[in-house]
Write a structure and sequence with these properties.
The complex is a heterodimer. By secondary structure, chain A is mainly alpha-helical. Chain A has helices at residues 2-22, 26-46, 50-75, 87-111, 128-135, 140-161, and one strand at 117-118. The chains are: A mainly alpha, B mainly alpha.
Chain lengths: 166, 102
Protein backbone atom coordinates (compact mmCIF):
# COMPACT_ATOMS: atom_id res chain seq x y z
CA UNK A 1 0.00 0.00 0.00
CA UNK A 2 2.70 2.47 1.00
CA UNK A 3 4.76 1.49 -2.01
CA UNK A 4 1.76 2.13 -4.25
CA UNK A 5 1.18 5.56 -2.69
CA UNK A 6 4.85 6.43 -3.03
CA UNK A 7 5.02 5.30 -6.65
CA UNK A 8 1.84 7.13 -7.65
CA UNK A 9 2.90 10.46 -6.15
CA UNK A 10 6.53 10.09 -7.22
CA UNK A 11 5.37 9.60 -10.80
CA UNK A 12 3.01 12.58 -10.53
CA UNK A 13 5.88 14.69 -9.17
CA UNK A 14 8.30 13.67 -11.91
CA UNK A 15 5.74 14.12 -14.71
CA UNK A 16 4.77 17.56 -13.39
CA UNK A 17 8.45 18.52 -13.04
CA UNK A 18 9.12 17.49 -16.64
CA UNK A 19 6.08 19.56 -17.59
CA UNK A 20 7.55 22.58 -15.78
CA UNK A 21 10.65 22.35 -17.95
CA UNK A 22 8.93 21.47 -21.23
CA UNK A 23 5.94 23.83 -21.31
CA UNK A 24 6.55 27.07 -23.17
CA UNK A 25 3.93 29.14 -21.41
CA UNK A 26 4.80 30.29 -17.86
CA UNK A 27 1.25 29.69 -16.58
CA UNK A 28 1.41 26.02 -17.57
CA UNK A 29 4.77 25.73 -15.82
CA UNK A 30 3.35 27.34 -12.68
CA UNK A 31 0.35 24.99 -12.54
CA UNK A 32 2.63 22.00 -13.03
CA UNK A 33 4.84 23.25 -10.21
CA UNK A 34 1.79 23.28 -7.93
CA UNK A 35 1.34 19.60 -8.82
CA UNK A 36 4.95 18.87 -7.84
CA UNK A 37 4.52 20.64 -4.51
CA UNK A 38 1.24 18.89 -3.73
CA UNK A 39 2.65 15.44 -4.36
CA UNK A 40 5.75 16.30 -2.33
CA UNK A 41 3.44 17.21 0.56
CA UNK A 42 1.96 13.69 0.39
CA UNK A 43 5.46 12.22 0.46
CA UNK A 44 6.27 14.35 3.53
CA UNK A 45 3.23 12.86 5.25
CA UNK A 46 4.52 9.40 4.34
CA UNK A 47 7.82 10.31 6.01
CA UNK A 48 6.03 11.48 9.16
CA UNK A 49 6.66 15.21 8.67
CA UNK A 50 3.10 16.38 9.33
CA UNK A 51 3.94 20.00 10.08
CA UNK A 52 6.07 20.33 6.96
CA UNK A 53 3.37 18.77 4.78
CA UNK A 54 0.89 21.39 5.96
CA UNK A 55 3.46 24.18 5.58
CA UNK A 56 4.31 22.94 2.10
CA UNK A 57 0.70 23.21 0.97
CA UNK A 58 0.07 26.55 2.68
CA UNK A 59 3.36 28.35 2.02
CA UNK A 60 4.49 26.88 -1.30
CA UNK A 61 1.41 25.72 -3.15
CA UNK A 62 -0.60 28.55 -1.61
CA UNK A 63 1.38 31.73 -1.10
CA UNK A 64 4.46 31.43 -3.30
CA UNK A 65 2.69 30.03 -6.34
CA UNK A 66 -0.11 32.59 -6.08
CA UNK A 67 2.63 35.22 -6.12
CA UNK A 68 4.11 33.64 -9.24
CA UNK A 69 0.78 33.42 -11.07
CA UNK A 70 0.00 36.99 -10.03
CA UNK A 71 3.26 38.29 -11.51
CA UNK A 72 2.85 36.22 -14.69
CA UNK A 73 -0.61 37.68 -15.24
CA UNK A 74 0.49 41.19 -14.27
CA UNK A 75 3.31 41.14 -16.81
CA UNK A 76 1.13 39.39 -19.39
CA UNK A 77 3.95 36.93 -20.09
CA UNK A 78 3.45 34.99 -23.31
CA UNK A 79 5.11 31.91 -24.75
CA UNK A 80 8.86 32.24 -24.93
CA UNK A 81 10.83 32.29 -28.15
CA UNK A 82 12.89 29.24 -28.95
CA UNK A 83 15.74 30.94 -30.76
CA UNK A 84 19.05 32.21 -29.52
CA UNK A 85 20.17 29.09 -27.72
CA UNK A 86 23.91 28.68 -27.58
CA UNK A 87 25.60 25.84 -29.45
CA UNK A 88 27.44 24.50 -26.39
CA UNK A 89 24.19 24.15 -24.45
CA UNK A 90 22.55 22.22 -27.28
CA UNK A 91 25.55 19.95 -27.61
CA UNK A 92 26.53 19.28 -24.00
CA UNK A 93 23.47 20.16 -21.93
CA UNK A 94 21.52 16.90 -21.91
CA UNK A 95 24.54 14.54 -21.65
CA UNK A 96 25.94 16.51 -18.72
CA UNK A 97 22.57 16.52 -16.95
CA UNK A 98 22.20 12.76 -17.44
CA UNK A 99 25.73 12.36 -16.06
CA UNK A 100 24.81 14.44 -13.01
CA UNK A 101 21.67 12.38 -12.42
CA UNK A 102 23.56 9.10 -12.85
CA UNK A 103 26.24 10.23 -10.43
CA UNK A 104 23.72 11.32 -7.78
CA UNK A 105 21.69 8.12 -8.14
CA UNK A 106 24.83 5.99 -7.97
CA UNK A 107 26.06 7.70 -4.80
CA UNK A 108 22.62 7.33 -3.20
CA UNK A 109 22.46 3.65 -4.05
CA UNK A 110 25.95 3.09 -2.64
CA UNK A 111 25.31 4.95 0.61
CA UNK A 112 21.87 3.47 1.27
CA UNK A 113 21.69 -0.18 0.23
CA UNK A 114 18.43 -2.11 0.17
CA UNK A 115 18.23 -2.65 3.95
CA UNK A 116 17.23 0.87 4.93
CA UNK A 117 13.54 1.44 4.30
CA UNK A 118 10.61 3.71 5.12
CA UNK A 119 7.28 2.64 6.54
CA UNK A 120 4.40 4.86 7.53
CA UNK A 121 4.47 5.65 11.24
CA UNK A 122 8.17 4.89 11.65
CA UNK A 123 8.92 8.49 12.60
CA UNK A 124 6.48 10.38 14.77
CA UNK A 125 8.48 13.46 15.79
CA UNK A 126 7.37 15.59 12.86
CA UNK A 127 4.21 16.82 14.55
CA UNK A 128 3.71 20.58 15.12
CA UNK A 129 4.32 19.97 18.82
CA UNK A 130 7.79 18.48 18.40
CA UNK A 131 8.77 20.86 15.62
CA UNK A 132 7.64 23.83 17.68
CA UNK A 133 9.49 22.62 20.76
CA UNK A 134 12.74 22.27 18.81
CA UNK A 135 12.12 25.56 17.02
CA UNK A 136 11.76 27.55 20.23
CA UNK A 137 14.57 25.87 22.18
CA UNK A 138 17.46 24.55 20.11
CA UNK A 139 16.81 26.67 17.05
CA UNK A 140 15.65 29.86 18.75
CA UNK A 141 18.43 32.07 17.37
CA UNK A 142 18.01 30.95 13.72
CA UNK A 143 14.26 31.43 14.13
CA UNK A 144 14.66 35.03 15.28
CA UNK A 145 17.22 35.74 12.56
CA UNK A 146 14.71 34.37 10.06
CA UNK A 147 12.09 36.83 11.25
CA UNK A 148 14.51 39.71 10.62
CA UNK A 149 15.30 38.23 7.20
CA UNK A 150 11.62 38.19 6.28
CA UNK A 151 11.20 41.77 7.45
CA UNK A 152 14.13 42.83 5.26
CA UNK A 153 12.73 40.86 2.32
CA UNK A 154 9.32 42.53 2.65
CA UNK A 155 10.87 46.00 2.82
CA UNK A 156 13.15 45.17 -0.12
CA UNK A 157 10.24 43.94 -2.22
CA UNK A 158 8.23 47.09 -1.48
CA UNK A 159 11.19 49.38 -2.29
CA UNK A 160 11.94 47.52 -5.51
CA UNK A 161 8.39 47.31 -6.81
CA UNK A 162 7.02 50.73 -5.85
CA UNK A 163 6.37 53.45 -8.36
CA UNK A 164 8.78 56.36 -8.41
CA UNK A 165 7.08 59.37 -6.85
CA UNK A 166 9.21 62.15 -8.32
CA UNK B 1 6.74 -5.69 0.32
CA UNK B 2 5.30 -3.01 2.52
CA UNK B 3 8.39 -0.88 2.99
CA UNK B 4 9.88 1.65 0.63
CA UNK B 5 13.69 1.72 0.30
CA UNK B 6 15.08 5.02 1.51
CA UNK B 7 17.17 5.24 -1.65
CA UNK B 8 13.94 5.68 -3.67
CA UNK B 9 13.15 8.92 -1.90
CA UNK B 10 16.69 10.20 -2.41
CA UNK B 11 16.65 9.16 -6.05
CA UNK B 12 13.35 10.98 -6.56
CA UNK B 13 14.94 14.02 -4.94
CA UNK B 14 17.90 13.74 -7.33
CA UNK B 15 15.57 13.44 -10.35
CA UNK B 16 13.62 16.54 -9.33
CA UNK B 17 16.85 18.45 -8.69
CA UNK B 18 18.27 17.57 -12.10
CA UNK B 19 14.99 18.60 -13.75
CA UNK B 20 15.26 21.91 -11.92
CA UNK B 21 18.82 22.34 -13.20
CA UNK B 22 17.60 21.54 -16.72
CA UNK B 23 14.89 24.19 -16.48
CA UNK B 24 17.37 26.69 -15.08
CA UNK B 25 19.81 26.12 -17.95
CA UNK B 26 17.48 25.63 -20.91
CA UNK B 27 14.63 28.04 -20.35
CA UNK B 28 14.80 31.63 -21.53
CA UNK B 29 11.85 33.12 -19.64
CA UNK B 30 13.04 34.74 -16.41
CA UNK B 31 9.92 33.65 -14.50
CA UNK B 32 10.33 30.02 -15.56
CA UNK B 33 14.00 30.13 -14.55
CA UNK B 34 12.84 31.36 -11.17
CA UNK B 35 10.34 28.52 -10.89
CA UNK B 36 13.14 26.05 -11.67
CA UNK B 37 15.02 27.40 -8.66
CA UNK B 38 11.95 26.72 -6.52
CA UNK B 39 11.84 23.19 -7.94
CA UNK B 40 15.47 22.62 -6.90
CA UNK B 41 14.77 23.92 -3.39
CA UNK B 42 11.81 21.53 -3.11
CA UNK B 43 13.97 18.61 -4.20
CA UNK B 44 16.55 19.39 -1.53
CA UNK B 45 13.75 19.70 1.04
CA UNK B 46 12.67 16.15 0.22
CA UNK B 47 16.23 14.99 0.94
CA UNK B 48 16.21 16.83 4.27
CA UNK B 49 12.95 15.22 5.35
CA UNK B 50 14.19 11.78 4.26
CA UNK B 51 17.38 12.16 6.29
CA UNK B 52 15.27 13.33 9.21
CA UNK B 53 13.31 10.07 8.98
CA UNK B 54 16.47 8.01 8.61
CA UNK B 55 18.23 9.56 11.62
CA UNK B 56 15.02 9.65 13.69
CA UNK B 57 15.66 13.30 14.56
CA UNK B 58 13.49 16.34 14.05
CA UNK B 59 16.41 18.55 12.94
CA UNK B 60 16.01 17.70 9.25
CA UNK B 61 12.41 18.90 9.39
CA UNK B 62 13.59 22.20 10.82
CA UNK B 63 16.21 22.64 8.11
CA UNK B 64 13.50 22.06 5.53
CA UNK B 65 11.34 24.61 7.36
CA UNK B 66 14.09 27.22 7.20
CA UNK B 67 14.69 26.48 3.53
CA UNK B 68 10.97 27.05 2.97
CA UNK B 69 11.04 30.39 4.79
CA UNK B 70 14.10 31.58 2.88
CA UNK B 71 12.50 30.45 -0.39
CA UNK B 72 9.38 32.49 0.37
CA UNK B 73 11.47 35.60 1.11
CA UNK B 74 13.51 34.98 -2.01
CA UNK B 75 10.36 34.65 -4.12
CA UNK B 76 9.06 38.00 -2.85
CA UNK B 77 12.30 39.86 -3.57
CA UNK B 78 12.96 38.02 -6.84
CA UNK B 79 9.52 38.75 -8.25
CA UNK B 80 9.91 42.41 -7.27
CA UNK B 81 13.20 42.44 -9.19
CA UNK B 82 11.46 40.81 -12.17
CA UNK B 83 8.77 43.51 -12.04
CA UNK B 84 11.46 46.21 -12.04
CA UNK B 85 13.36 44.58 -14.89
CA UNK B 86 10.19 44.35 -16.94
CA UNK B 87 9.38 47.98 -16.19
CA UNK B 88 12.79 49.10 -17.41
CA UNK B 89 13.40 46.70 -20.32
CA UNK B 90 9.91 45.57 -21.38
CA UNK B 91 11.19 42.02 -21.83
CA UNK B 92 11.28 38.79 -19.85
CA UNK B 93 13.91 37.07 -22.00
CA UNK B 94 17.09 36.62 -20.00
CA UNK B 95 19.24 36.83 -23.15
CA UNK B 96 18.15 40.44 -23.57
CA UNK B 97 18.91 41.31 -19.93
CA UNK B 98 22.61 40.63 -20.02
CA UNK B 99 24.03 43.95 -18.85
CA UNK B 100 23.52 45.48 -15.44
CA UNK B 101 23.32 49.06 -16.70
CA UNK B 102 21.08 50.43 -19.41
Amino acid sequence: MEVVIFLVFAIIAVVCAINVVVQTHPISSAISLVGVMGSLAVLYLLLGAEFLAAAQVIVYAGAVMVLFVFVIMLLNAGTESRKGRSFMVQLLGVPLLVTLLGLLAYIVQRIYPIGASVHFGGFTQGTPRDVGRALFSTYLLPFEVTSILILIAILGAIVLARKELD
Amino acid sequence: MAEIPIAWFLTLSAVLFVLGVAGFLFRRNIITVFMSIELMLNAVNLSFVTFSYRLKQVDGNLFAFFVMVVAAAEAAVGLAIILTVFKNRSTLNIDEVETMKN
